[in-house]
Automatic annotation (TrEMBL):
The lineage of its organism: Bacteria, Bacillati, Actinomycetota, Actinomycetes, Micrococcales. Residues 25-279 form the Periplasmic binding protein domain. GO terms for molecular function: carbohydrate binding. This is Putative sugar ABC transporter sugar-binding protein. GO terms for cellular component: cell envelope. The keyword NADP does not apply. Its main location: other.
Amino acid sequence: GTAGAGSAAGTSGGDKITMGFAQVGAESGWRTANTKSVQDSAKKAGVDLKFSDAQQKQENQIKAIRSYIQQKVDVIAFSPVVESGWDTVLKEAKNAKIPVILTDRAVDSSDKTLYKTFLGSDFVEEGKKAGDWLVKESKSSTDTVNIVEIQGTTGSAPANDRKEGFAEAIKADPKLKIVASQSGDFTRSGGKQVMEAFLKNNADIDVVFAHNDDEGLGAIEAIEAAGKVPGKDIKIITIDAVKDGMTALSNGKINYIVECSPMLGDQLMDLAKKVIAGETVPERVVTEETTFTQEQAKQVLASRPY
Ligand code: GYE
């Protein structure tokens, strides 16, 4: 249709809102649940969704965003695979008067006018919660606690922030030491590979801190293959609380999970409608999350929605 003064740039036919969504990939259980949430909510909200999967590559996301600009969608939403390098393409969207919403992950642009709002978790807080649990758990022991860290995708907001939050929390106890830290790219196979190398190079590992459930699940395979018992010989802390992670937690193979909610779809559609209508929205919308012990996981496992 013809966009009158003050209305959003592209209304590609009818009253239906068109959203271009540039997803990170399909790297984890979290991501699969997040994609489903966005697709289900779009349908429910009557939003025409154009969806692309960047296979964890920034260049693919940039291409997808450029094609959404060309198609004159009403709004662009995306989950930036890494934090840096977005200013150019975001300026292109701004020049085309297409509003952008960040979901799940942040960008490090200093120009806050390049996007309308950022919906997602507080990753520093998640890392802190993981570290706080370990501080409590290790209170009674006097020995050094050797921790290996399996980081998420290098340069991504959740990897940067979870690392920071965890390091901050374990400062409370000098006997907690990170002896190795490497990226497993948020995948199960990545977690397994990194853990295999850690086990080879470190004789005495007490704890794994994995930045997501999938990496933790991969680490479990490596630990078992090395003849050790995950959850006992080596304790495991992860983030996400997806079905497979929660199952491993209830089975005693993981010791603690910090929840990170992938169910962002409804809030995203809501924000998109407001932004397109020209309403002001908060510049930051933080997801509410909890934590789970093994006992708590047993109680909620059956009722988890993802
Ligand atoms: O924790 C991980 C996924 O960005 C919060 O990405 C998300 C993270 C999530 O691959 O499983």
